[in-house]
Amino acid sequence: MNAKDRELRNKAAATVEENEERVNQDHYRLNYHHMPPAGLLSDPNGLIQWNGVFHLFYQWMPFHTGHGEKFWGHCTSKDFVNWEQQPIALTPSSWFDKDGCYSGSAVVHDDKMYLFYTGNVVNEQGEGETYQCMAVSDDGIHFDKKGPVIHLPEGYTSDFRDPKVWEKEGSWYMVIGAQSKKRHGKAVLFRSEDLTHWELVGNITGSYEQKLGELGYMWECPDFFELEGQGVLIVSPQGLKANGMAYNNRYQSGYFTGTLDYNRGDFTHAEFKELDRGFEFYAPQTTLDEKGRRILFGWMGVPEQYEEAHPTIENRWIHCLTIPRELEWEGNQIVQKPLEELKEMRESVLLHSDITIENDQKGIRGVGGNSVEIQLEFENIEEQFALELFHYAAFSYQKKDGILTLSRPHLEDKSKTEFRRVKLDGELSQLRLFIDHSTLEVFVNGGEEVFTSRIFPQKGNDAVLFTSLGASTFSIEQWKLSG
Ligand code: FRU
């Protein structure tokens, strides 16, 4: 621990303490999601399970609600429900990461945990420099920085970051999010036999690669893994233009599936598909747990998407992570399911079966609340079905065209309503909603589509209203969720 590191840790602890009261009285604080004790939280980093303990790191700016010189916050859990806050894992205290310990990943090797992250540096000329760095730990709590293991190769700008490392047949691989000198987003592969010396393999895909055409000027936070034999590359490209119902957020996150030729460094894949349809979802990361499940956390935020308009800012905190989700491969796409362990949060249950609403809007006894899971199973929807949440957001389904719509007051201009939509392949059969004060995650038809969003209803509003055009018949199960 150098003097700068000590100073930053003390300053972070003092800022948290100073803001504690103000932060905690905010009625938008969350019950079962990860959020910053003060300041800004963004990408999940370094997800890994080690000796039964799950480690979750995240990008954290303790000092204010803007971005900047990020720390790696850290917490651990054995069951995904009860979490223990751990000491800060990385502070921007060294010459190679002085302007931010940016995103990265973790692996375990020879009974040690290795973190790989991007050291962000702004030099004296005001230019960006980027170093892919390594830090090692014997106990998973205290990390010893080893400095840069990769310097910026020829052909890329300094937007070169977010290393994700994995092992395949005895070798280590790393994929990095990059921008070529021509300003095209790329996913760049490296290989290593010892985690320290890395050899550049090349672009596995990217904007203007693999017959893709234009697909963004920068790719952030890549993640590569196999899901039931499919190669999956998740990336967060920047610079996609809105196209009908697609790409409506400022930046997107999605995936390609296909086959990676590790020797040639070539990923042959299908089209890019968005992972989420809501207003806030970005920079997800996955890991394989000890049971062989592929688990994902995402950031419930989007960079530069009216972050200044979030009402939590006046209480000195902003953003959170999603709930953990298990990824499965179903036919021709990834489906996302809330992690099984979250059922442990369920307290009282409420059940209504065989409800029919016809050309009417109404509440249903006991349904609502601000820390709940609500599951709806549909028997039949004649025309249109909608949920109005907390006199704030609405979620609706139009049978004729199969379109699902989430709407909420525009965060910047409250006189407007903003929408996110998707067209379902089949009919709507199930909705599973996770609500936590100022978050909403809706899993549609077993996770075939997901809408992740912040919601900012007025204090005390926790009513859910059901509307149907024509007749809708369904059942409801609702659980109050403990934190
Ligand atoms: C994505 C991102 C990453 C970067 C990090 C910095 O949200 O921009 O590319 O490493 O955030 O906090």
Automatic annotation (TrEMBL):
Keyword set, alphabetical order: Carbohydrate metabolism, Cytoplasm, Glycosidase, Hydrolase
EC number: 3.2.1.26
SMART domains: Glyco_32 (SM00640)
Gene3D superfamilies: Exo-inulinase, domain 1, Glycosyl hydrolase domain, family 43
Reaction catalyzed: Hydrolysis of terminal non-reducing beta-D-fructofuranoside residues in beta-D-fructofuranosides
Pathway: Glycan biosynthesis; sucrose metabolism
Gene Ontology molecular-function annotations: beta-fructofuranosidase activity
Residue span(s) of domain Glycosyl hydrolase family 32 C-terminal: 341-479
Leader sequence segment: none
Chief location bin: cytoplasm
Pfam family membership, one: Glyco_hydro_32C
Region (Disordered) location: 1-20
Keyword Flavoprotein attached: no
Biased composition (Basic and acidic residues): 1-10
Domain Glycosyl hydrolase family 32 N-terminal: 33-338
Cell compartments where the protein resides: Cytoplasm
UniProt xrefs under PANTHER family: BETA-FRUCTOSIDASE
NCBIfam families, per the entry: scrB_fam
Protein task: Enables the bacterium to metabolize sucrose as a sole carbon source.
Family: Belongs to the glycosyl hydrolase 32 family.
Protein name, as recorded: Sucrose-6-phosphate hydrolase
Species of origin: Halobacillus naozhouensis
